[in-house]
Known about the structure:
This protein is 36% helix and 7% strand. It has three domains: 1-40, no CATH class; 45-136, Homing Intron 3 (I-Ppo) Encoded Endonuclease, Chain A (Alpha-Beta Complex), CATH 3.90.75; 144-181, no CATH class. It has seven helices and four strands. Strand 1 (76-77) and strand 2 form a beta hairpin. Helix 5 (149-157) crosses helix 7 and helix 6 crosses helix 7 (173-181). By secondary structure, the chain is mainly α. The N and C termini lie far apart (65 Å).
Amino acid sequence: MRDPVCCIEGCKRPIHVKKYGFCRAHYLRYWRYGSPFLGATFVGDPKKFIDTVAVTYRDDDCLIWPFGTNTYGYAMKGGVYVSRYVCEKTNGPSPDKNYDCAHSCGKGHLGCVNPKHLSWKTRADNLADTVIHGTHRRGERSNLSKLTEAEVFEIKYSTANQRQTAAQYGIDQSTVSDIRRGKSWAWL
């Protein structure tokens, strides 16, 4: 007996999600776009888009990559960041392997590949830009944060000992110490 195949006509790949009868590719399209038929592209389309649209784009508005993004929203093609590839095509190679492709618009996480918005910057400069653009992932915006800014202020200026404060907020005593010494949450 043959393994069951995807329920989409013409697709011969094995079923990945039995509930829907879809292969992995059609299920991912269904999950991302609400339909197993949306989001599909021909193999040459992303490369053609880069060469004919992205590299020659001269408008000031963001140019959003139409072929999907990674988990963090950055445009990807074959494991390569498209913005980095476009930056190399328009600004030359990176001055050093430690340089990032920075977005002056602050919308790299939305898939912007406008060559006018791309430049080479050090990691420190690129991270400083995230604060300016409001796209930083520190403090409350971090997925790992257990504290709000208001709670950090209370901890910072509390006169209670560190162990009691840590127990009150459900955090480690070393976290209280780091906050009070300005080692973490130093911008507050």
